[in-house]
Amino acid sequence: MDDPTAIRNCQAGDKEAFRHLVERYQSQAIGHAIAILGHREDALDALQDAFLDAFHALGQFDVERRFYPWFYVILRNCCFKLASGRKKQELGSSEEIEILAPTPSLKPEETMLLERTMLELKAEDRELITLKHLDGLSYEELAQRMEIPLGTVMSRLYHARARLRDKLARQSFTGFSRS
After folding, report:
1. Is the distance from CB of 33 to CB of 79 less than 8 angstroms?
2. How many helices (H) and strands (E) does the chain have?
């Protein structure tokens, strides 16, 4: 079943059709939620809230649009709502959270250092870097997804990269390029 069919079926009252959307997007969404929140349990809570909110709002969804960018806005709002309602929690062990997929050009210890450093960034910085460099979104896609102007995306991403580079440089990390 494709997304438009699942959405039309949901809009017609078939609650089971929503399962297609959950199964298709949950692993991508959990990765984004972890990137924003930095904590797996919080990310799972936000993801559950986001899917519930999306299900309730699906009646107004335009099936001509793509589902995930619309859902991402809901997920993002749930993540920031959850983050603002909770005190910053202690970071878990490096095995608890995996933001980055294994990269052949980095040693395992460099990957762990990069992940820990990413978790030290503000949620907004982590989100931008993840969407741009791990998901490969263009500046235009970032602007749409985050609902901010293109110039703002470029500026925020520039500063987020600089903060990450500075943190990594202080730890003598050599695996990060300036691109």
Report:
1. yes
2. 8, 0
Six token digits for residue 122: 């503000």
Tell me if 96 sits within 8 A of 49, measured CB to CB: no
Tens digits of per-residue pLDDT, 16-45? 999 999 999 998 899 889 888 888 899 999
Residue 66, C-beta contacts closer than 8 angstroms, at least 6 positions apart = 3
**What letter represents residue 127's amino acid?**
E
How does pLDDT run across 37-46, given as a tens digit for each residue? 888 899 999 9
CB contact at 8 A, 108 and 175? no
Lookup result for tokens 């741009």: 132
CA distance 172 to 176: 10
Q: Name the residue among 69, 64, 54, 73 with its Cα closest to residue 15.
A: 54
Start-to-end Cα distance in the chain: 39
Tokens of 81: 């709502």
Q: In the predicted model, is pLDDT for residue 106 greater than 70?
A: no
Which residues have a Cβ under 8 Å from the Cβ of 56 and sit 6 or more positions away? none
State how far the Cα of 136 lies from the Cα of 85, in Å rounded to an integer: 30
Q: What is the pTM of this model?
A: 0.67
CA–CA separation, 7 and 11 (whole Å): 6
